[in-house]
Amino acid sequence: xxxxxxxxxxxxxxxxxxxxxxxxxxxxxxxxxxxxxxxxxxxxxxxxxxxxxxxxxxxxxxxxxxxxxxxxxxxxxxxxxxxxxxxxxxxxxxxxxxxxxxxxxxxxxxxxxxxxxxxxxxxxxxxxxxxxxxxxxxxxxxxxxxxxxxxxxxxxxxxxxxxxxxxxxxxxxxxxxxxxxxxxxxxxxxxxxxxxxxxxxxxxxxxxxxxxxxxxxxxxxxxxxxxxxxxxxxxxxxxxxxxxxxxxxxxxxxxxxxxxxxxxxxxxxxxxxxxxxxxxxxxxxxxxxxxxxxxxxxxxxxxxxxxxxxxxxxxxxxxxxxxxxxxxxxxxxxxxxxxxxxxxxxxxxxxxxxxxxxxxxxxxxxxxxxxxxxxxxxxxxxxxxxxxxxxxxxxxxxxxxxxxxxxxxxxxxxxxxxxxxxxxxxxxxxxxxxxxxxxxxxx
Length: 443
Description:
Layout: H1 3-14, H2 24-36, H3 51-61, H4 63-83, E1 89-96, E2 100-111, H5 116-182, H6 188-222, H7 247-257, H8 259-280, E3 286-293, E4 300-307, H9 313-382, H10 388-423
Antiparallel strand pairs: 1-2, 2-3, 3-4
């Protein structure tokens, strides 16, 4: 190979770098920042772990989040692929009859038309933004799954505690019925009724205890733990914090930072970039090369030049029309998601308010009155002024109200988690998201 071509080939083999497009460097920094927060091995949850600790653990550990992160990282790498020039080609040609008469090594390169590489890079960059918001959605969905599996488990424990208290109460009622029977103020039927109620409550408690294993398995799966790993600790229930922004302010925040809306907005930018790419297809691509006849003296240099001819107008028109249709579809999907978001927001906000009213009614009025009614009926039965069925009815009413209180607590906690995480899109503290994404999206 002649010295000039050898020098060029050596430079190519040593490696070249293209020019990054806007946002490529920042995207790589974000991927690296999040990657440092996703270690391969996480320490086990401490026995005194809080719910917030469990959420942070799940977001770092769950395979769904790791898969979304890998997809995002791959899309960032694809920016470099999309905006890079095609690889140059080394060529070799010779003419030989009885002897080699001509030996021509060469070098050629394809050169996309003006603006094509930039358009491809912009489309890949927009696609990486959409993949990022999918990763953010996966993180928030994982956090929500932890809370949605935690609250039923924690409130099941509260229900079991209530049942055990009622078991003790029924035991005391049976003792009271026996005492009344011994002095002739009641029949043995009252003792049997008390025993029947206890048997029913024991069976219900056994069913609840059995169902705890199912709920614990759901909680374990939400944390991304496999069946072979140890069962996680169940955190102590934190007190419910009232207050916060009103519905109008929260909905405005949801429209601003909901990750699904941001993903669809990014898909619009992908569609816009695809439209620019389609329009660029009307521009010819070029190729250039150089060969040298190393056998000639002096050496003969043969420059080469080529150009594509974009003559298939129907094909070009179809590409542009398809890109325009894709853009319209992306905008329609964003509008549809905004409509659905408003409905979902209204539903979850209503469930929170409904549960709050139910808890106020139960705690301020119904539960105190039910306890008072039970004490009155017990005293009346003891003095022979009331039937034992009145005592049982009062006991059932108290149990029903206590169960309703637990159900309302569960509804309120789960609805608030869904509203905060999935609809408003507020990330829990400490989850692995890029720093600038916590304050606003990068464009």
